Every structure is written in C-alpha cells, then in structure tokens.
Amino acid sequence: MPGCGKCGKRLDIVANQVGRRDECPHCGTELRACIHCRHYDVSVAKECKEPFAEVPNDKESANFCELYQIGEGAERAGQAKGELLSAAEQLFAKK
Questions:
Q1: Where are the alpha helices (DSSP H) in the chain?
Q2: What is the per-residue pLDDT for 77?
Q3: Which residue from 11, 59, 65, 68 lies 20 to 30 Å from 51 (Cα-Cα)?
Q4: Which of 13, 11, 9, 6 is nearest to 40 (CA)?
Q5: What's the pTM?
C-alpha cells in the first residue's frame, strides 16, 4: 500500500492517482516528489532507478516527472537502512 516518504504513514491512493498539488494528510509534504516515488533510491546515480528520468535537484518538492509512481513510503527507506546496518555489523563483528 502506498505510503508517505517523509512520515511513513499509509495513504489511501488507488492506481497511482497522485496530482501535482496533492499533499500528505498527515505531515503536509507534497506527494508528487522524488522522495515518494518507487524509483527513488539514494544508492544509485541521481538517486533514481529510472535511467531515462529527468531528475530534479530538489527531491522533496513536487515536480512534473512523467515516470513518477507512488512508492511504499518511509518503510522502504527504514528497511534498507536496517539491512545496511545489519550487514555492517556482520562485517565488523569480532570473532
């Protein structure tokens, strides 16, 4: 289910219907921004997994990207961070 990339709350959005001026009802952030997109990934070039996207510099403000698709929100980022921390702990664990 779609979620806000800022606060992580679930959003009642059906079929990727997110308008240019839509905001999260919980935290008020603009939803049509990179940080909410399913292609957003801080570990890749330009922080976007879509190779043909014209990526804006400001990832938190609304934009006109035609490849935008609402993502799973902050849970995705939190999960990735947890996985990275776990991998780092295993790498540097004393045996």
A1: 74-91
A2: 47
A3: 11
A4: 6
A5: 0.70
Indicate the domain borders of the chain.
1-95
And the tokens for 48?
A: 């976007």
Average pLDDT of span 9-16: 82
The amino acid present at 19, given as its one-letter code, is G
Question: How do residues 42-55 score in pLDDT, each as one tens digit?
Answer: 888 889 999 999 98
Tell me the chain's radius of gyration from C-alpha atoms. Answer: 15
Calpha distance 54→95 (Å, rounded) = 47
Q: How far apart are CA 11 and CA 45, in angstroms?
A: 28
Contact 33, 60 (CB under 8 A): yes
